[in-house]
Amino acid sequence: MKLSINNHDWGTIPSHSVAAIQFYCAENNHQFHLDEEAQRVEVKSSLHGKKVWLSVNTKNANINNEINEKVIGLLTDYGIIVSLKRDTGTIREGELFVELVSSHSQGEGKSVSVGYNERLNSINVKKNLSIYKNELPFKGYYLIPEHHSIPHLRCSIKCKDEEFLLKETPVLITHCVLKTLLGNQKPSLLDLNVLHLFQTVNNQTGKSSSQTVQKKPSKDIQMDDKTYEEIKMRKANRKVQKAQDKKPYAEIYFDYNVIPNRKSERYSIKADFFIKNTGNVDLMNPKICFRMDPPDKIEIGGQILPPEMSEIFSLQGQNGAQGWKYMGKDWLEKAYSTGEYWIESIQESFIPPGETIAVEGVQFTVESLEEQEVSTILGFVLFEGQDLQLSSNNKIKITF
Question: pLDDT by residue (tens digit) across 120-150?
Fold first, then answer.
């Protein structure tokens, strides 16, 4: 029986080992195919056949083309099908749209931030980018407007060094794609397509295997499709049970009222923003973002304090200052440019399982827009220490 792993020829195997290989594939989410007529077993990683869209936008068209070619070469080696996104149309099929956007930074410094849409609910590529931490500091995550019907990941790099872009970004994009497609699944040597590097000399392996089979004939044992699927189902159930043993999660939503002001043609929105811990572990230090679109037409108010005033004007409880404050000294400048208002608890906070905390009394003021235009306020929460990012179940949306 011939064996192929990720399209690499591994010589021959005894027939009785087919069942073991089939079992291994079911346990590790690999693809298994038995061609009895050709007497051939094919094993491929879970990445094989995944479709990814790619877009690279730097200020140099030649660099764009070179990065595209390198990324396609790297991802194709994993069995991933890569298509280039060259227009502005909506993508409706595929596993992922990955985008590289580069802009010149002030001075010689470099940085990277990662954006994602609501269909890509939880990602953690920070660890994968840590190899660049000295040259390319990670500046955090941000939310991308919903333009496509598939998960969308954007790497935004500030860098003047075109040589660095050409050398490092193809690997950076590849890391982000692999992490996103594999999710929480631990990559194996087969997934990473390096197993064949450990292969012994093909001729020697083939001869040894043949001699062993002749000396020690064995009964042909194979699983039927039903048994194979049952094994996969049991494996999936074990993964679910393991995840349930320690699972951080939350339900996030707005409760709000819209109050029109006919005289000023503005709308006031009074909102409470709730975070309910629906997992089974404490959630620590939520960082909350309210994203406004369009950013110049929506103002925010309420009981959220600027960071320099949080100790003076905050409510005082038994454990000290309480309430919410904006994040960073330049929070207002960033909000005007990005439409994102980031806030955090004045003191360290945690949410026990089953408990709820709220940002109460937030007031949004929306200016009147042109007819057929839309104003949107979306909330999402980052639990940075627990690698968990979640979008709100609902959004505030006003159509004019």
Answer: 755 667 777 777 767 788 887 777 877 888 8
Q: Is pLDDT larger for residue 143 or for residue 90? A: 90
Number of independent structural domains in the chain:
3
- Fill in the amino acid letter for 120: L
Q: Are 216 and 16 in contact (CB under 8 A)?
A: no
List pLDDT tens digits, range 307-319. Answer: 887 665 555 544 4
Could you tell me the residue range of the domain that residue 272 belongs to?
A: 250-399
Condensed to tens digits (0 to 9), the pLDDT of residues 61-75 reads: 999 999 999 999 999
User: Residue-wise over 333-364: b if at least 16 C-beta within 10 A, else e?
Assistant: eebeeebbbbbbbbeeeebebeeebebeebbb
Question: Is residue 25 classed as helix, strand or coil in its secondary structure?
Answer: helix
CATH number of the domain where residue 118 is located: 3.40.630.40
Q: Would you tell me the crossing angle of helices 61-76 and 162-182 to the nearest 10 degrees?
A: 40
Any bridge partners for residue 264, and if so which? none
Q: Locate tokens 């043609």: which residue?
A: 265
CATH of the domain at 292: 2.60.40.10
